[in-house]
Amino acid sequence: MAKILDLTGLKFGKLTAVSLANAKKPVKWLWLCECGNTRIAQAGNVKSGNTQSCGCWNNMMRGRTKRVDGEVVFTHQMSRTREYKVWSSMKDRCCNSANKSFHNYGGRGITVCERWLSGFDAFFADMGPRPSARHSIDRWPDVNGNYEPGNCRWATSHEQMNNLRQNKNVTFKGRTESLSTWSRETGIPRSTLASRASRGVPLF
Fold first, then answer.
1. Do 152 and 180 belong to one domain?
2. Domain span at residue 55?
3. What domain count does the chain have?
4. Where are the beta strands (DSSP E) in the chain?
5. In a domain, 69, yes or no
6. Coil, helix or strand for 172?
7. What is the full DSSP assignment across 133-144?
8. Are residues 174 and 152 in the same domain?
9. Rg (CA), the chain
10. FRET label pair with 108: which of 40, 90, 172, 191, CA 20 to 30 Å apart?
């Protein structure tokens, strides 16, 4: 019997191998999907890319075709989702000088990468579904960087507050945190801490 390659912990597409489910051919593994669901699938199908998720990806991206000027066009049917609205708003504030927030984005040189400008499908493939209603797109780790893979994440409002341009980090007893975090932990208003920091006096 041929030795079975140990795939435990390896990731293909959105699936990570958890444990061997069937040692007989075709070899099957239990996979953990990025969405949190699990499924059993043939190792060969997952490694080749024929199976990329537990099924959530197909459910999210399943669409229909329509004819536009005589050509068949695929529609992702996600134009009413929050992810699509985030993508559309992101492009508008970076590319549309009439957008009320343009001066904070496109006006100061922040751009959207060509891959994401090319279409929503590419953006969704890189970012995936929004984890919850509390999450929105955040440029991280470089708050002054562009909207592109590697510098964007889904983040909560608290995580984004700690990533603001104007947020000030303060080191106390060897630990560096934002003023917002220190305020939350000490109960001292952030405005008070900011005033103390600006005057160079001890925060606590």
1. no
2. 11-59
3. 3
4. 11-12, 15-22, 28-33, 38-42, 64-68, 71-75, 136-139, 152-155, 169-172, 175-178
5. no
6. strand
7. TT-EEEE-S-TT
8. no
9. 23
10. 191
- Indicate if 101 and 157 belong to the same structural domain: yes
Tell me, yes or no, whether 133 and 178 share the same domain.
no
Same domain for 150 and 97, yes or no, is yes
From CA 157, how far away is CA 136, in angstroms rounded? 8
Answer whether the bond into residue 189 is a cis peptide, omega within 30°: no
Q: Kindly report the pTM of this predicted structure.
A: 0.49
Q: How many residues does the chain have?
A: 204
